[in-house]
Design brief:
Layout (H helix, E strand, L loop, with lengths): L4 E7 L3 E7 L5 E8 L11 E2 L1 H19 L6 E8 L4 E5 L9 E2 L7 H9 L2 H9 L8 H11 L3 H6 L3 E5 H9 L9 E3 H4 L5 E2 L4 E2 L1 H6 L9 E3 L2 E6 L11 E7 H8 L8 E5 L3 E8 L10 E6 L7 E8 L3 H9 L9 H6 L9 E3 L17 E3 L7 H27 L5 E5 L6 H11 L2 E5 L4 H14 L5 H7 L2 E5 L5 H18 L5
């Protein structure tokens, strides 16, 4: 059974999983473990990087067991990760300097605003393709250097290392303090505000703006190449090639086989992330989208993308479940929303920590508007599903305007795609076809694909395109009048969220 499989470590915002895939891109086995969400104060979100590493060891061991294979049956392993989440650790001991700061964390909003207002934001945007925002890793790293005792001195002495979660895991898997490899890939580096998006290297100007010592940064590699081998005394119990590394949304684009310019995917998770392949052309958005690296395979030219990141979609359903106790399980939202024909005039904008693309308004906060005594919790549940879809329309409309590409199909993935009412509403609101693949775990699959391409397990992207197959497709059932009227009301609701936080 020698090397008939590829593995993928998928380290996400709420959990870590290890999955095994065969040559056809079908899942063979998996194991998944959740980790703690640490919320020290309003707007702060942290993870324990040591817990994530411990969970990674567990899911690898249990995932191999679930698949019924040994590590020696793996041709390679890929990694995909929650992007922007920032870890700093001591290379001598492997101990983190405190908790990781998560992508959702907003403690650096004032720093981002200052950089934007004093003119340095234009430099950051031109170099990195990203507007200054609390979302990205550069500001989080600056905060750690300024606020955690001893980190700046250790960084300048060469002892403190920075990484996003991919870097942290690769370093530990390849030996940690005993020769661990300190690398990241172009997709993760493109989310820091510190990388020149054309040169694909760390750039001195953003490093100076954020006061980052260059020596603490990892080497930037492609998304598909051999980075190193796992240690025989590690969770795999053998030397296995690590050969794929992609930020989660980039991995989903690859897993969806969106290799042609103009192909678009939307991942529905904690937030929503729409990524449009723009080919080898760098498209600079004028309407609030992010210019990012889609992927780079080996020595081939990088492929770029436009991205619209939406902070709160699936987590709004969780909020209705956990805080408001509207239903017991998130999946119950569909049955409840189906008991009404429409939203009853109710609009829900879940701007819990501000609005991301295309607005970039950290001063926004959530609203539920249009309520009357006629309304029930079913209307609120329906409005929550519509909010997921309207926020996606906000992004799709500006993608079309920025790129000049007319979209015909939206490929969807992520947990919420199991909610068929939500997918129908998405097709209704966008007036384009919505297509869900057979393999729902496109993020892990994309990491596996990147690793397999690097070692010749797959010979090229044509094989990956052939692996993709459709599970279901939705087409719009709304009239143009319904669509326009609904979106007009949505935009009015968004206006009500703005300027709430001074």
């Amino acid at each position: 059974m020698s090397q008939q499989y590829v593995g993928a470590i998928d380290q996400g915002t709420t959990s870590t999983r290890f999955m095994v895939f065969d040559h056809g891109g079908d899942e063979v086995g998996r194991h998944q473990v959740e980790h703690e969400q640490i919320l020290p104060q309003a707007g702060w979100v942290e993870h324990d990087a040591a817990e994530i590493w411990a969970n990674t060891r567990t899911v690898v061991e249990k995932g191999l067991e679930a698949a019924g294979i040994a590590a020696t049956d793996l041709a390679a392993v890929g990694i995909t990760n929650q992007r922007e989440t920032t870890v700093v650790w001591d290379r001598r001991t492997g101990e983190p300097y405190g908790n990781a700061i998560v992508w959702q964390d907003t403690r650096t909003a004032a720093l981002a605003r200052t950089i934007e207002e004093d003119g340095r934001g234009a430099i950051v945007h031109a170099k990195s393709g990203l507007p200054p925002a609390a979302y990205f890793a550069g500001g989080k790293l600056h905060w750690i250097l300024e606020n955690v005792d001893g980190v700046r001195a250790d960084a300048e002495a060469g002892h403190a290392l920075f990484g996003t979660i991919d870097t942290w895991l690769i370093w530990n898997l390849t030996g940690g303090p005993d020769g661990g490899v300190h690398v990241t890939d172009v997709t993760n580096a493109s989310r820091t505000m510190l990388m020149d998006i054309e040169a694909l290297q760390w750039d001195d100007e953003p490093l100076e703006i954020f006061e980052i010592p260059r020596q603490m940064l990892p080497e930037i590699t492609s998304s598909s190449q051999e980075f190193g081998r796992t240690r025989a005394d590690g969770p795999f119990g053998a030397e296995v090639v690590l050969a794929g590394n992609l930020g989660d949304q980039h991995a989903a684009l690859v897993g969806q086989a969106c290799f042609e310019p103009g192909m678009l995917k939307n991942t529905y998770g904690t937030g929503n992330f729409l990524v449009l392949n723009t080919g080898t052309e760098i498209v600079r958005s004028e309407r609030g989208l992010l210019t990012t690296v889609a992927y780079r395979f080996g020595d081939a030219p990088p492929v770029y993308a436009l991205e619209g990141s939406i902070a709160v979609t699936g987590s709004a359903i969780q909020w209705l479940r956990d805080q408001l106790k509207v239903f017991a399980e998130a999946a119950d939202s569909e049955a409840l929303a189906e008991t009404v024909d429409d939203n009853g005039g109710v609009y829900f904008v879940p701007a819990f920590s501000g609005l991301f693309a295309p607005y970039w308004r950290p001063d926004a906060r959530g609203v539920i508007v249009g309520l009357s005594r006629f309304n029930t919790v079913a209307h609120v549940a329906r409005a929550a599903l519509e909010a997921i879809c309207y926020q996606s329309k906000d992004v799709v409309d500006v993608m079309v305007a920025d790129s000049g590409i007319e979209l015909e199909v939206l490929r969807v993935d992520g947990g919420i795609t199991a909610n068929e009412l939500c997918m129908q509403i998405q097709a209704d609101i966008l007036d384009i076809e919505v297509s869900r693949p057979v393999v729902a775990e496109t993020t892990a699959l994309g990491a596996a694909y990147a690793a397999g391409l690097a070692v010749g397990f797959w010979t090229g992207t044509d094989e990956l395109v052939a692996n993709w197959s459709e599970s279901k497709r939705w087409t719009s059932q709304w009239t143009d009048e319904d669509r326009e009227a609904g979106y007009h009301q949505w935009k009015k609701a968004v206006e009500r969220t703005l300027g709430w936080v001074e």
